[in-house]
Amino acid sequence: MADGGKTETKKSVKFPHNPVTGRCAYKKANFTINTFNINNNKISSALKVDEIKKDIIFLQESKKEDKIQGDYVYTFKPQGPIHNGMLVKDSVFEIDPENNYKYGHRWHAIILRRRAEPKKKIVAISWHGPRNVLGTEKKEAFNELIKFAQKIRRDYSAPAIIGGDFNVVEKTVRDWLKTKDEFKIEALEKENLKGYRKGKKSIDFFVHSSDLEISSINSIDITEKLKNLNNGDEGDNDESNDDEGDNDESNDDEGDNDKSNDDEGDNDESNDDESNNDRTLTKKMGKINLSTK
């Protein structure tokens, strides 16, 4: 109760992006994956929903201060205003003891070993693509990501999965990958878009090396699930940004016009520092060290 006998109203947690999930197969081994831009909320609030509890969860705009309960190891790397993290089920994977937590301007990569088959390594990369920049700069950033994924795959002789908020639409990434046979994209089918970002085009998906198979791509209406689970009191003590949740306005032609700054549809009013950081992306790209050792 607040002072004066009035009941305090807790803020509801707002997720402009719904988690996108899938099933991955590699040499007869199966595991589940999820990529989720959690919009600076705590992932612990969303983990109340069983459907998102996949073996690997790729996180964008995550928080360092988060108490994760259950069978998960949480890795996190602050990169200015761009925070990427990952949740890994400890019963399914262990983080490679030699892993040095590889970071780039907008990616967070870890090397995993399946506990059932320790010799099988997997490269997992969480990616948050640049927003408020020209399409040519987005493509340059994506190409740097793929170069890094190619190198780390060679270094560890392992397949790679990139889960992320790419801030461009699936069609654009498919075009970028036409000259890169080593990688494929898996995204939501049109019939599964209704519950994703209010029916907008998909910018959250998976890019993976061709030696992996990904199927059963689906989206979970996380806000609705939390409302049903908690009878409308999903907020608990999590901090959310009301402005970000209410202003997720996108352009249906997102990603196709290289001259547009916001064509990717991720207008949930991110931190202005991130926008400033994006505007110097080209300069930063020249300083990225692709070494993985």
Please characterize this protein's 3D structure.
This protein is of the alpha+beta class. The chain has a single domain, classed as Endonuclease/exonuclease/phosphatase (Deoxyribonuclease I, Chain A, 4-Layer Sandwich), CATH 3.60.10.10. Helices cover 20% and strands 29% of the residues. The chain has seven helices and 13 strands. The chain has helices at residues 43-46, 135-156, 170-176, 222-230, 242-246, 272-279, 281-285; strands at 20-26, 29-37, 56-60, 72-79, 82-89, 93-95, 102-103, 107-114, 117-128, 160-165, 183-186, 204-209, 213-219. Strands 6, 7, 8, 9, 10, 11 and 12 form a seven-stranded mixed β-sheet that branches. Strand 2 (29-37), helix 1 (43-46) and strand 3 (56-60) form a beta-alpha-beta unit. The chain is globular. The protein starts with 19 loop residues before the first strand and ends in an 8-residue tail after the last helix.
Span from first to last CA? Answer: 54 Å
Second-tier CATH architecture: 4-Layer Sandwich
Indicate the low-confidence ranges by residue numbers. Answer: 234-293
Our count of domains comes out at 1
**Rg, nearest Å:** 19 Å
Category from helices, strands and their pairing: alpha+beta
Name given to the CATH homologous superfamily: Endonuclease/exonuclease/phosphatase
CATH fold assignment: Deoxyribonuclease I, Chain A
* Count of helical stretches: 7
Percent in strands: 25-35%
What is the ordering of alpha helices and beta strands? EEHEEEEEEEHEHEEEHHHH
What's the main sheet like?
A: 7 strands, mixed
**Percent range of helical residues:** 10-25%
For the record, the CATH class is Alpha Beta
The global form is globular
Mean pLDDT: 76
* Number of strand elements: 13
